[in-house]
TrEMBL record:
<comment type="similarity">
    <text>Belongs to the class-V pyridoxal-phosphate-dependent aminotransferase family.</text>
</comment>
<dbReference type="InterPro" id="IPR024169">
    <property type="entry name" value="SP_NH2Trfase/AEP_transaminase"/>
</dbReference>
<dbReference type="GO" id="GO:0016740">
    <property type="term" value="F:transferase activity"/>
</dbReference>
<dbReference type="InterPro" id="IPR015424">
    <property type="entry name" value="PyrdxlP-dep_Trfase"/>
</dbReference>
<dbReference type="Pfam" id="PF00266">
    <property type="entry name" value="Aminotran_5"/>
</dbReference>
<dbReference type="InterPro" id="IPR020578">
    <property type="entry name" value="Aminotrans_V_PyrdxlP_BS"/>
</dbReference>
<keyword id="KW-0663">Pyridoxal phosphate</keyword>
<dbReference type="InterPro" id="IPR000192">
    <property type="entry name" value="Aminotrans_V_dom"/>
</dbReference>
<feature type="domain" description="Aminotransferase class V">
    <location>
        <begin position="48"/>
        <end position="349"/>
    </location>
</feature>
<dbReference type="InterPro" id="IPR015422">
    <property type="entry name" value="PyrdxlP-dep_Trfase_small"/>
</dbReference>
<protein>
    <recommendedName>
        <fullName>alanine--glyoxylate transaminase</fullName>
        <ecNumber>2.6.1.44</ecNumber>
    </recommendedName>
</protein>
<dbReference type="InterPro" id="IPR015421">
    <property type="entry name" value="PyrdxlP-dep_Trfase_major"/>
</dbReference>
<keyword id="KW-0808">Transferase</keyword>
Length: 391
């Protein structure tokens, strides 16, 4: 038989009950999940192909249609985080040699450009000025000049706090035969989006932001046009794990259901519950609440003399807010004070905004008045401690 050896007992890993501190997550995500969503995750597991579980997946697809305002059959949750949704869109839409025009207004555009190159797309980057977005005119000119197969835009850029408008693009994209791919990871459910009316062709998002879920499920939508391009591909996508023909089979896109991978059962329970919360509140109410909380936050921050990093009102994202670090303020000390004293997460900048801003998320379950008030209080306390605010 096989040799039996003495077990190495020196490092047994964890023991005892897990201990997690309670924190208010007011950075760019994850936001705190809704208690109903957390409760759903504790329900008993079902098999990933059991009919009651498939019914839950169908319910999620219905919820996504409402959230994204589409009648398309092609909605699902990718098993993975926002990045998995991003990579699923790119791997399936981009064929080697395709022109991919990527709007870059922060790190997410950069990442999509990188990913598109890995799938051998011919990437054309359109760089927005730091803290602003791409204008309709710039987009139009470049679309007409390059006629790309795919245009990527990030609706909510969490690294810079900008909101990219999609207005008027559908007409031009039709003219140039371009598919419009949009990142809505930190905007879906927080700001208006009408997939069908705006002729968006592909969307990916995340579960852990405005949808009040845990990280680990990426909402995804394909239009019929996007589906047609995907099905005309000469070669299968260079990824098995994220091949949407195969994942679509698991979600029943093409009729019969086939096993592709084991769906994250508990995470999908959570997202079913998150979809129910959206349906119960109503999209318009959700958008209004996020907008109102964003304004409440800024009323408080401005009263402390703090200024938005994004200069133009129209470019400012309501769900992830970037706040200039004032001259002489120690951002790290202020962030640490908020955590130590209030169990409150305030985030610093990321990528091009590193060291320049604080970032505050106004998302999902956390987008409520008492949280805005606490964030303002934590800024006030932090500034006072550094002598940057008069008593
Ligand atoms: N896009 C945007 C705009 C994001 O804010 C994030 C997450 N911060 C992502 C993509 C990536 O999502 P994840 O971290 O869930 O993979």
């Amino acid at each position: 038989g096989e040799p039996v050896q003495a077990i190495n007992e020196t490092n047994r890993g964890p023991s005892g009950i897990i201990n997690v501190p309670t924190r208010l997550l007011m950075g760019p995500g994850p936001a705190n999940a809704h208690p109903r969503v957390l409760a759903a995750q504790t329900l008993p597991l079902l098999g990933h192909m059991h009919p009651p579980f498939l019914k839950i997946m169908d319910e999620i697809q219905g919820g996504l249609r409402y959230l994204m305002q589409t009648d398309s059959k092609y909605t699902l949750m990718v098993s993975g985080t926002g990045h998995a949704g991003m990579e699923a869109c790119i791997a399936n839409l981009v064929e080697p040699g395709d022109k991919v025009m990527v709007g870059v207004s922060g790190i997410w555009g950069e990442r999509v450009a990188d990913m598109s190159r890995r799938f051998r797309g011919n990437v054309i980057e359109l760089q927005a000025q730091l803290g602003s977005t791409l204008s309709y005119t710039t987009l139009k000119e470049n679309l007409l000049q390059h006629k790309p197969a795919v245009l990527f835009l990030c609706q909510g850029e969490s690294s810079t706090g900008t909101h990219q408008s999609l207005a008027g693009l559908s007409e031009i994209c039709k003219q140039t035969n371009t598919l419009l791919l949009v990142d809505t990871v930190c905007s879906l459910g927080g700001v208006p989006l009408f997939a069908d009316a705006w002729c968006v062709d592909a969307i990916y998002s995340g579960s852990q932001k405005c949808l009040s879920g845990p990280p680990g499920a990426a909402p995804l939508f394909f239009s019929q046009k996007a589906m047609d391009k995907m099905q005309r591909r000469k070669e299968v996508p260079a990824t098995y794990n994220l091949d949407l023909n195969l994942i679509g089979d698991y979600w029943g896109w093409f009729g019969k259901r086939f096993y592709h991978h084991t769906g994250p059962v508990s995470t999908f329970y959570a997202m079913r519950e998150a979809m129910a919360l959206v349906a119960e509140e109503g999209l318009e109410n959700m958008w209004r609440r996020h907008n109102e909380m964003h304004h409440q936050l800024w009323d408080g921050l401005k009263s402390l003399g703090l200024q938005p990093f994004v200069e133009n009102d129209a470019d400012r994202l309501s769900t992830v807010n970037t706040i200039k670090v004032p001259e002489g303020v120690d951002a790290m000390a202020l962030i640490k004070n908020a955590m130590d004293k209030y169990d409150l997460e305030i985030a610093g900048g990321l990528g091009p905004t590193a060291g320049k801003v604080f970032r505050i998320g106004v998302m999902g379950f956390n987008a409520k008045p008492q949280n805005m008030a606490l964030v303002v209080e934590a800024f006030k306390d932090g500034l006072k401690q550094q002598g940057k605010l008069k008593a």
